[in-house]
Amino acid sequence: MAFAAVSQPEAGTLIHTDQMNPETAKLRLEQVPTYQMLMSGVLVIDKPAGLTSHDVVNRVRRILHTRAVGHVGTLDPMATGVLPLVIGNLTRLAQFYTSAEKSYEGAIRFGFATDTYDREGKPTSPLQTLTFSLDTLREWAGRFRGVIQQVPPPFSAKKVEGVPAYKLARKQKPFTLRQVQVEVKEFEILDLDGPQARFRARVGSGTYLRSVAHDLGQLAGCGAHLESLRRTSVGEFNLSQAHTLEGLEGAALHGSVREICVPLQDVLPALPFVTANEETLARIRSGRSVNLAELSRAKQVKVFDGERELVAIATRVAGTLFHPKIVLAGEPSRRAAKPSKAEQPEGG
Fold first, then answer.
1. Has 76 been annotated as catalytic?
2. What range defines the domain where residue 319 resides?
3. To 10 degrees, what angle do helices 53-64 and 245-253 make?
4. Which end of the chain is more exposed for a tag (fewer CB within 10 A), N or C?
């Protein structure tokens, strides 16, 4: 994890607080010196319900005093759970997660459908009584596993001639969304309690569980919508690594943000890593190819300066010769990173 000190702190500037009201905490947070906030890292937030993914990004930008914050994998406002954030120079890592596998747990409410395919929408069918058993529901659920064709929800970020579908839906303009191919690797109905069924799912990129719930309701003949959704993992990131926004604020106040970030050697675990010497690091930081004999069979590698600073992702071009695909850490002056994000319309 790389932290850059912009200037030396004055004695006593680090703030330690144990108990304070929200207004005082916000004021104290604004007074934390900027040098304490400038960082590059990966942080997993447990997104609360009611906020968009971009709302979370904006709040983290204010907490960390930086614009260079992006998120990996969009979550609907209703959904909660794992929202990985890439910060500082590491915003460029977002490109490696555009097709990351995601896991969820949630509930489907049978009896009527809604226009948004979730509990926040308006009913589009009359209330009906359930006439099926748990075993029958589990049999139907099996039809949604594997590579399937799916129509995204009308209230989604899918584009229709360049315009997000949700904008057209809000204006009640007619439009048609095309079927897309998605992969549902796991979809298990855990139990059925009255009109509500709990489920567990593991899906590929671009899969809408709102559509799964809606289509399952159509198959059941009584309508259904997504009642709740909690994301439990994105790629290698999971709930055990997640922190609340309030927890992040507390860490920022105590100068301990690095302690709640994901160790960078745990990021992109499929890629081997090497700790390079100064000569090799200098070449990589300037965008030049290097020889990494010990990693001659790897297609891509992570290059570290010491144990914490991820300098680059390098791609093998021939034999033992690797070229930096992206350089994540420049010279000690720490060039400012531009914000970026992975805006994949999924998770709902």
1. yes
2. 266-327
3. 10
4. N
